[in-house]
């Protein structure tokens, strides 16, 4: 007859349950990362609007204004998507820079180079928006983030196309 093992424990196995809200939280985190990139982009385009020079001044000064005006509204919509999920939109510039993958431009490039930078940033934003739209569709997208993101992607693609046409890069 063996003595009972004093080391026997009833420790439970680690839970493998995935919280149902995980996918939704993932979308919220992604929306804040997008908000950070959109904020960096917005400020960069304002900088280009203010500081562009040369024979394309009138065209680009106006085009950059149209672009940052669009992103001003887009930023607001993205932030409201974060709020509607019960989270806080990233709002301090320090946190924005921490979270963003896009980089600020402390330099003042020549006009054509500004357009090249804007096109590259729009490509990065579009990829981020599309990946997030897919995740939103997979999650319980009760707040309609996927629709907001798909509309955003459509506008980004149109702007990319027009800027590439201006650069003669089609
Ligand atoms: Fe202005």
TrEMBL record:
Source organism, top-level taxon: Bacteria
Family annotation (InterPro entries): DPS_DNA-bd, DPS_DNA-bd_CS, Ferritin-like, Ferritin-like_SF, Ferritin_DPS_dom
Coiled coil: 115-142
Presence of the UniProt keyword Cytoplasm in the record: no
GO MF term set: DNA binding; ferric iron binding; oxidoreductase activity, acting on metal ions
Biased composition, class Polar residues, residue ranges: 1-15
Keywords on record: Coiled coil, DNA-binding
One Pfam match: Ferritin
Residue stretches making up the Ferritin/DPS domain: 30-170
SUPFAM superfamilies named in the record: Ferritin-like
Region described as Disordered: spans on this chain: 1-24
Family the entry assigns: Belongs to the Dps family.
Name of the protein in question: Starvation-inducible DNA-binding protein
The species this protein was found in: Salinibacter ruber
Lineage, broadest ranks: Bacteria, Pseudomonadati, Rhodothermota, Rhodothermia, Rhodothermales
């Amino acid at each position: 007859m063996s003595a009972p093992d004093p080391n026997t424990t009833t420790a439970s196995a680690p839970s493998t349950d995935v919280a149902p809200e995980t996918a939704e939280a993932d979308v919220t985190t992604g929306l804040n990362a997008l908000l950070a990139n959109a904020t960096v982009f917005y400020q960069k385009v304002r900088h280009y609007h203010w500081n562009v020079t040369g024979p394309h001044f009138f065209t680009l000064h106006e085009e950059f204004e149209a672009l940052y005006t669009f992103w001003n509204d887009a930023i607001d919509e993205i932030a409201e998507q974060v709020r509607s999920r019960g989270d806080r939109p990233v709002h301090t510039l320090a946190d924005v820079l921490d979270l963003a993958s896009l980089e600020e431009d402390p330099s003042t490039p020549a006009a054509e180079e500004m357009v090249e930078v804007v096109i590259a940033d729009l490509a990065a934003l579009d990829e981020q928006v599309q990946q997030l739209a897919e995740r939103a569709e997979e999650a319980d997208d009760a707040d309609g983030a996927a629709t907001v993101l798909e509309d955003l992607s459509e506008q980004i693609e149109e702007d990319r196309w027009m800027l590439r046409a201006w650069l003669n890069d089609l």
